[in-house]
């Protein structure tokens, strides 16, 4: 149902508050072109050839060095280059899950993860959360439970960032239960005020698979991500990756390595953060102006999304066709729940549109929400 | 064991008759660079953005048009772009296989396919073959059998090309048993004298998933392939692909599309075929000179490999360390059998090295084979 609705929301010309597509203006097109030319002129024999499944050693070193600046010392030989962090989810599913196993998730969460786990025939189970994230005392002590999947930084869809203290207690609780953590971190670099706390993996590296992405900080069309895994899982993940696609494009890896070597990332990230912060601010003031008293939300300190809970008790999925009719798209809250739930919520993205169009889109949506009767 | 042996064979400086790495000199580096610049200057908003799971529509059309020249009229909406044909194997495994199911394969065959199917916990079973391929009368009538996997053109490792008549009877037999075919065709464009017969998929499109690759004709480092599937399976494969990595790099897709539009492929393919034919000829004359009477082989009419069966009864895997010591690598025959088998065989690639080094490598190997005693 959601899939069909989202097709509707792909109609061109809409004010897109739906998908999490980074703004095209944020892409470092010129830097990509320069990197392509350098890669092909200086490394064409490796850039166009088969490569190792693990990925280019120098790219893995760059990634480990970047993670060190986030407060986590990583051995580059534990970094595996993936075709986007979505592939990391698929590989982790392959290695950790099997028929009848269970995986614990936040509710709401990114359903693309559950979609990646689905072929391995595991069941998902929601862990109770508060505003700081999953409650460590509520982790089920269930021998069939194979992993806890979570997005600690500016979560999709809630925008929530798990505070440092909660990370420590969560990692300790998971370690106590010997419950592997799957830490999905596509948004960690997109902070507006201060960097998020160190990854949960830094608290329990032996039990955590960390998934990172370059889609949100460089460009999604490159499809390049990575994972960091403990020695107990790394060889299994490499084997799964080899079976899945041999290795990620050495050409794209070489181009990204050339971009990182040219030291453009920090400056580029500052520009992206400034742009997204403007979008966040525009959306926040529009929500305040048009929806105060009719809905509630928390202001995200990074990432791409507001999570809005309507007070009217309306099923937001039922509002989507009318919203699209009036020129705005969003994602209904039920799209982020594996069981029924979230019907009164919606996710709004502030990274695709200009401040002006965000204001216009929120105003239109607010009109619909305010006038909707509960169903 | 084979994995460890192959690490040995990766030692630099060896005469590599092992891996199927296309010669670096065959890469269209200049055309890739021009295509990158065009892609980024004219299509950066799509080339760097998220794309649809199915792939770029114009790239799918180009691929369908190319398949039409092979004698198979393909609807472009049935083409799915993949991250190399290895990913096609993984997706087909996800959709067709499950715990306890069986998949029929040629023996010997490409074990990377079995590695891709392994996570879905299916068992493989070998179909009896003769010099023309699998014997249609020997396809098992087994309700647990989910697919027949085969490589009809210049098979890896045997180099065998299934003749037209056998294709027709095989497709009819599979259709009679309602047994889906997985037709893996990475080498079909690498013919030396005449193009191979039309794909098996053209005989039974409703029951065949066809896997294609651009690795062997453009460059493996791009990691771009495709599959063509019948309407009954296509939506399931798209869903599996979305869960696996959302979509293949739109950047690489746009670059390849620009290359195809520039109409460079046919000319490039002619150069690649001429180069590989020289390698094949050099290997054939070296085998004749050094191994006549000690081993047997068939001369491949395309592809990348000779399959050599030693008459001495030696286990070729046991010869590999000595071969590497003397400066030559190859792949032992047992690496292509899912059950014990092929110990007296070896696969020799003629696409990586020059004619001179091929002659030198074969001479060295022949010395070892002739002096080896059966074990």
Task: Explain how this protein is built.
- The structure is a homodimer of 375-residue chains.
- By secondary structure, chain A is an alpha/beta fold.
- Chain A has two domains: 2-26 and 267-370, Aspartate Aminotransferase, domain 1; 49-262, Type I PLP-dependent aspartate aminotransferase-like (Major domain) (Aspartate Aminotransferase, domain 2), CATH 3.40.640.10.
- The first copy, chain A, is built from eleven helices and 15 strands.
- Chain A has helices spanning 2-8, 29-47, 57-68, 85-96, 111-117, 164-177, 234-245, 250-261, 265-291, 316-325, 355-371, and strands at 15-16, 79-82, 102-105, 123-126, 129-130, 133-134, 145-150, 181-185, 208-213, 225-228, 295-297, 305-310, 328-329, 331-332, 345-349.
- In chain A, α9 packs parallel to α11.
- The longest helix of chain A is centred in the last third of the chain and has 27 residues, at 265-291.
- Chain A is globular, with a radius of gyration of 21 Å.
- The two termini of chain A are 18 Å apart.
- The model of chain A has no long low-confidence stretch (mean pLDDT 93).
- At the A-B interface, α2, α4, α5, α7 and α8 of A face α2, α4, α5, α7 and α8 of B.
> What name goes with the CATH superfamily of the largest domain in chain A?
Type I PLP-dependent aspartate aminotransferase-like (Major domain)
Averaged pLDDT of chain A: 93
Main sheet record of chain A? 7 strands, mixed
What is the string of SSEs of chain A from the N terminus onward?
HEHHEHEHEEEEHEEEHHHEEHEEEH
Radius of gyration of chain A: 21 Å
- Helical residues, percent of chain A: 25-40%
Oligomer: homodimer
Annotation, overall tally of beta strands of chain A? 15
Helix tally of chain A? 11
User: What form of chain A results from the Cα inertia axes?
Assistant: globular
Number of domains of chain A: 2
- Count interface residues per chain for the largest interface: A-B, 54 and 54 residues
Class of the largest domain in chain A, according to the CATH hierarchy? Alpha Beta
* CATH second-level architecture of the largest domain in chain A: 3-Layer(aba) Sandwich
